[in-house]
Amino acid sequence: MTEEILISLSSQETRVAVVEQGLLQEILIERTHTRGVLGNIYKGRVTRVMPGMQSAFIDVGLPRAAFVHVSDILDTHPLISSDERSVGLRSATDVPTIQALLREGQTLTVQVMKEPIKSKGARLSTNISLASRFLVYMPGTPHIGISQRIEVEDERQRLRQIVEDLSPDESDRTDGFIIRTAAESIRSGEIEKDASLLKSLWQSIDTKAAPLTSPALVYEDLPLHLRVMRDLINRRTGRIATDSRTIYEKLGPLLEDVLPEKLSCLELTQAGTPLFDRHDIEDQISKALDKTVLLKSGGSLVIEQTEAMTTIDVNTGAYVGRKDLEETIYRTNLEAAAAIPRQLRLRNIGGIVILDFIDMVNEEHKRQVLRILEKGQLQDGAKYRTSEISELGLVEMTRKRTRESLSDMLREPCPYCKGDGWVKTPETVCLEIFREIRKTANNFREHKCLIMASQVVVDRLLEEEALCIKELAKGLQTEILYQVEATYSQQHFDIVLV
């Protein structure tokens, strides 16, 4: 199946949509005033070392202090020998402590590995990596890796040999590469050209960093529309459409130089209807913010994002099946397993994810559902770890999180419920008002009582609670007045002496 990449540019933001058969698979958003920092390289200064967490805070010039964990330092630190780097540290006792590696006031070159998310600062690493179309270059880390999506063993060996030939003497190798999926079937000359460009880029970054005073930005990653060409365009890309002449004129020469076979896919759309509206992208983005996802069969997914994890509950809904209960459950779970990876990618949900499938008895059905789930994950660029289906029908999985989810980017907590998703009922609020008045009863002996609340609460006080109000006023020997405050939430009220 072919993919379409749609790029929309405005003065406030750039948006990129990946579409397959009319369905939105991924949405990337970069706003002009809040550009992401993922991939940026900084010269930072250690402001605090925390032995209890084996981490350190680094000032790199961002609004919130970034942090680095000891595991993100080891590969490049001079205390770690080349032998240890190549075979890996054997046990926890071999790992140096953070205070042995860093000290307050120390300067070091770091790269952002994870965007600031909510109250957490950016996560950093001293293991610098620079990505191109075919390779990821790792200066100071003598390791060669190959994308697991390249499955043919002969091709893997060919690509490994090309990269190993860049440094024939393994004992002198100081840098490493990861061979990306896009390198499959690419000629050796193209890969060698990529490696040369990445090495030159690192040399210029290293030279630039030396005289700078920390904190300072040393290297800023490519803007979104150029990262698309590097990270998203692949063999399945059949169309690249943009509504911006600026982007069209920038991508054209780059595609001609790097991916000439995709130049014919690039097109500039200038019709009256906005690009995203024409492909129903705006509506699909709105639906991606809903917690309920309807399946074609009539079943549904209920997606709940929390601070610690995301849970996805699978329901049969209106689907009643044709044969028996087990078959109905199996078909619903199969459809859910196919839909879940797309939803995780589209919503950019990361961290721990718990999938609550409907309980199945047949072991083969369980295996098939898991296979469909893992097959869908192959279309996603993020890393997954997935467990087997438990006896309770649960699947535990993780998806690597590097930036905010779509929900966190486009929404903020409700000012009324403070993100809880619930508000107290009018009846509950009225009872709280009564308790508050009784608690301060002595204050009302010589004053009138004014209740300031929302319209729905005042209406209940005047209607359902009218008798209670009358008895309360009689008991306090005072008069109770009401005032509707349009700006108050349903659960907000004030009691004032008049």
Q: Strands of the largest sheet, in order across it?
A: 16-17-18-19-21-20
Look at the structure and give the CATH class of the largest domain. Answer: Mainly Beta
User: How does the overall form come out from the CA principal axes?
Assistant: globular
Strand content: 25-35%
The description of the largest β-sheet is:
6 strands, mixed
Percentage of residues assigned to helices: 25-40%
Give the averaged pLDDT, no decimals: 87
Please state the second-level CATH architecture of the largest domain.
Answer: Beta Barrel
CATH superfamily of the largest domain: Nucleic acid-binding proteins
Low-confidence stretches: 77-92
Count of helix runs:
14
Number of domains: 4
Structure summary, number of beta strands? 24
What is Rg?
Answer: 29 Å
Might you state the CATH topology name of the largest domain?
A: OB fold (Dihydrolipoamide Acetyltransferase, E2P)
| Secondary-structure class | alpha+beta
Amino-to-carboxy terminus distance: 72 Å
Structural overview:
The protein is an alpha+beta fold. The protein has four domains: 3-35 and 233-283, Nucleotidyltransferase, domain 5 (2-Layer Sandwich), CATH 3.30.420.40; 41-219, OB fold (Dihydrolipoamide Acetyltransferase, E2P); 288-410, no CATH class; 426-497, 3-Layer(aba) Sandwich (Hypothetical Protein Ychn, Chain: A), CATH 3.40.1260. Helix content is 31%, strand content 25%. It contains 14 helices and 24 strands. The protein has helices at residues 82-87, 98-101, 153-164, 188-209, 224-231, 245-258, 275-278, 281-287, 325-347, 363-377, 406-410, 426-439, 455-462, 466-476, and strands at residues 3-9, 13-20, 23-31, 41-50, 55-59, 66-69, 107-114, 123-125, 130-131, 135-138, 144-146, 176-179, 216-219, 237-242, 266-268, 292-294, 300-305, 309-315, 351-356, 384-386, 394-399, 449-453, 480-484, 493-497. Strands 16-17-18-19-21-20 form a six-stranded mixed β-sheet, covered by helices on one side. β14, α6 and β15 (266-268) form a beta-alpha-beta unit. It is globular. The model is unreliable at 77-92 (pLDDT under 50).
